[in-house]
Amino acid sequence: MAVQNEVRAPATNGGRSLFYDPRVRGFVFQAALIVLVVLFVWSAASNAIENLREQNIASGFGFLGTTAGFDISQHLIDYSPTSTYGRAFVVGFLNTLLVAAVGIVLATVLGFLVGIARLSPNWLIARIATAYVEVIRNIPLLLQLLFWYFAVLKALPGPRQSLDFGFGIYLNIRGLFLPNPVFGPGSGLFDVAIVVAIVAVVVLARWARRRQAATGVQFPVFWTSVAMLLGLPLCGLAVAGFPVTFDMPELKGFNFSGGVGLEPEFVALALGLSLYTASFIAEIVRGGINAVSHGQTEAANALGLRGALTLRLVVIPQAMRVIIPPLTNQFLNLTKNSSLAVAIGYPDLVSVFAGTVLNQTGQALEVIFITMLVYLALSLATSAFMNWFNLRMALVER
Amino acid sequence: MKTKLLPWLVGAALIGSIATASADTLADVKAKGFLQCGANTGLIGFGSPDDKGDWKGFDVDYCRAVAAAVFGDATKVKFTPLTAKERFTALQSGEVDVLVRNTTWTLSRDSQMGLIFAGVNYYDGQGFMVRKSLGISSALELSGATVCVQTGTTTELNLADYFRTNGMTFNPVVIEKSDEVVQAYESGRCDAFTTDASGLYAERLKLSNPADHIILPEIISKEPLGPVVRQGDDKWLTIVKWTHYAMLNAEELGVTSKNVDEMKGSQNPDIKRLLGTEGAYGEPMGIGNDWAYNVIKLVGNYGEIFDRNIGPDTPLGISRGLNALWTKGGLQYGMPVR
To answer: Would you tell me which residues 160-189 of chain B have a C-beta closer than 8 angstroms to some C-beta of chain A?
Structure first.
């Protein structure tokens, strides 16, 4: 473009008015468009504010500081009915983040497994994976969520007939209850051991790679890492004399108290979202692997690499370039779909903030505006991260 | 309201129809030829479609009564089923002309939401329903219970207040649609289900075995339910308000849908003014002078619609209690027509 302009500029500018200069004209039209858009938004906002005032509907963001007065079942930070609407917003936001993060991890793992299984030479495995994909991705997500919530709920026993799995693990219609480890004094050693183990694993991996590059001798990095990650913290605890006690769930009155509980709403939502999204991810993974030319596999075989190594070292790294951009879309979809939580009573951002708070304050415009902004920011952050990741995974062309 | 075209268009596009809510609801209703009424998504006895798809219920009859007053035809009404969460926005934006959906009259709804209550058609209070098998007889024994509740109701706040005041803990399960709240309660997800007492009686009928559930005696809040309109349209407010009073006055004077034609010949001046045979009380409101006659003839007086929809002879079996006329020890009091 730049070259073209330079060539043309003297020809068009010579003697003619600015009106015919494409650069000036382009600038003027773009500026006019921006002014129009700004005017559009500004007049819309001022009109909305004026009308709200005329109709005597409260406006502004002052409501965020007033007492909420309602309770929320699952909160990752301290929350009580005396907390503010602002805090209720944070509680809902964190719940959305939690279910999105758990959903993304589960969906990715399951999606990769199913995607690879669809390409398996084993007839049965491939057909099961196909059936999974075709059934799950063709049923509306809302129905699946309601199915998991109500069908699964109905099958579980009441609190007094809980399924007892031993070790203080109970399952009933109110959720899954697990013992909560309480770290006593001296367990600082445990934290230190974890940090040491992580550092050691990173150092080991680098050393092993350098050694392999230099000498061609391999080192079992994976299993050594697992052993270190599990073993070192345990050793730390043993040295400190196991200062860990467990807060056991106990049947008290209506339900279990103590321990940690996973609410059925959360389980149903995380399960429904990840199963649904995994079926799409599976197709993306299958497409990505198929996009890698078969010659690559044959070449790897010719070099004497076994099947698993071929997949891990040759096929998947090349498939990733094809997989990551559509994978980002699925992550964004999952995050946005988590707003269906409102149907099954999981206290996410939409349920708590755009639901209860909106209704108690009546400030629909502000509440919906904030909610949209949050989802926008969340989606932009996710795609920014995935773009960065994509750039790293892209083939380095020499 | 601004009338310049650009802001108007943009406002409509950006914020739904808030900018288009007109200040003359009566003219709008007459122009479109029917009343758009915000109703419940399905609360037996108060507002729900029957097996033929006709809307039936106590609140629904209020919508029909307003239509009868405006058009002299109780069928010129369309219903918009609204969840508790959607209802105020639907009214504010002008999607519905009047909201009669067991909605509690509170200060903040009057002062912050641009709404105004036209009266109280049902004095209610919040209660709890539990399974008989739990063996409890008082709401004060509910500490530690899991409670199912619908999103966006005063119920959600009263619940937190009640447990806080009595030093008890609870775990809320908040769901948007009332059907799904009841389903969650029935599946055993919650120990208790809470809503207005009238709603508890209605929802209990939907359970597979209503006799297994009891409604606890505690009423933990005041829930005056009534029709709601937008602020800034006093003419429309007057019509909705006086439709309510006309039905109360009719019951007090013994005028029913069956005897209203005979009553037209009555010499009682109160009845004459009510039925429009003396004076002209409809015209100043912008409707016919026989407005109250139409309401009573086509829909009935307060006692009739109460008995027909929720009274002792219906499956709900609710007694008049606070909703009896003031002459019979209740709170319902019709302002005089004169």
So the answer is: 160-161, 163-164, 170-177, 180, 183-184, 187-189
